[in-house]
Amino acid sequence: MKFQDIELLFGNKNPKQMLPKVTVLAILLAILIFTITPLCYPLFSYSSLLKINKYKQPSKYGEKKCDIFSGEWVPNPKAPYYTNTTCWAIHEHQNCMKYGRPDSEFMKWRWKPYECELPIFNPFQFLEIVRGKSMAFVGDSVGRNHMQSLICLLSRVEWPINVSPTTNDYFRQWRYPSYNFTIAAYWTPYLVKSKMVDSIGPSHNGLFNLYLDQVDKAWTTQMDDFDYIIINAGHWFFRPMIFYEKQNLVGCCDCLLKNVTDLTIYHGYRKVFRTAFKAINSLQNFKGVTFLRTFAPSHFENGTWNKGGQCVRTKPFKSNEIEFEGTNLKLYMIQLEEFKIAKKEGSKKGLKFQLLDTTQAMLLRPDGHPSKYGHWPHENVTLYNDCVHWCLPGPIDTWNDFLLQMLKMEDMKFSSGERLHAQTN
To answer: Which part of the chain is the Trichome birefringence-like C-terminal domain (predicted)?
Structure first.
């Protein structure tokens, strides 16, 4: 294209009044820079984005590629799709409306990916996809929070029956009889073998021994028959910990013990995911799909959880209003790095790993936590302001929008494979 033609595109209709060529070149360079620069990811620094993209592959929707986990929260006046009075599965500490939360706008948002639409959870479609299958939620109480959201969303179709083999609330199983679908929760906050050695600890938050190379057999011995595992861990790692490997003390995190090296939270976090993923890849009969549900940041402001921290915001952040940095980013990157290793090793055995990336979306939701509305004001509770778990109904319901979309894509791949197999035989 000639310079005269370029200038006409910019509104200069008189060739005699052409801009200098240098100016035109500068304009073209500016357009090129702004086209290439990923402006649709404003919550990341560019270097952080480059690191993250090393470990993530965009989801495919037909011929179009779309990262469903990168986007913004937009209003959704149709939500919520259940209430705290219609769903009995809501844990008391996440029953925000029961305990007097005065605002309700936090329930009326949906996640909008930059490059496509994310459908709202369809319970009929979900149950058809998982008919005859089973799903395990493995991790801490935020994982259980996720499972309870799923039960509430599915309640529009059917209520499950309790088929738990034990009365222990940390290990529960539910079955949907019409669909022969089972979900289970396995509470294991560190994923590996752990033991509380001091209920007070240096920060009045307990002190735990973590055996970084020994998986918690309470969950690994139960996984063989599951079709899906959704694994998570995070907030317990902010407690003081002592690390053991091969039965030897190797260091700690915030333990304040003399002559013990502080290896930081990141050392333990990386090791436990490595151990957990190796355990899954070593299961003899497991043939299912493992989802890593990534770290969901807390939103304590004006102090830590035990020093007056609170979360009182009533609307989401825009992505350019908060930085994805510091500890949140480091923990997230550790997960992506260990996930990539596990996925590569699993593929050699025909095992599948999927990334259920909730970190970016939940970083923007400081309004979604129970805060002080997880109990009555006069109650004496340990976590007075809860800025870790999520109100139900609330933004955590979007995790099941993500999950269903991923299951649909997995189901499409499986169906396509079946058709291809039939055509070649």
So the answer is: 118-406
Angle between helix 141-154 and 398-423 (nearest 10): 70
Nearest to 295 by CA among 352, 234, 373: 234
Number of H helices, E strands in the chain: 10, 15
pLDDT in tens, 24-78: 565 555 555 444 444 444 445 544 555 566 566 555 444 467 999 999 999 999 9
Selected catalytic residue, list 140, 213, 386, 401 = 386
pTM of the complete model: 0.85
* CA–centroid distance for 128 within its chain: 24
Q: Are 121 and 401 in contact (CB under 8 A)?
A: yes
The sign of the torsion formed by the CA atoms of 40, 41, 46, 47 equals negative
Active-site annotation holds for 299: no
DSSP H or E run through 32: helix 21-36
Dist. CA 140–CA 162, nearest whole Å: 20
- The residue from 134, 213, 389, 397 that is catalytic is 389
Catalytic one among 134, 141, 319, 371?
A: 141
141: annotated active-site residue: yes
Q: Is 48 a catalytic site residue?
A: no
**Which amino acid is located at 32 in the chain?**
L
Contact 409, 59 (CB under 8 A): yes
pLDDT of residue 1: 42
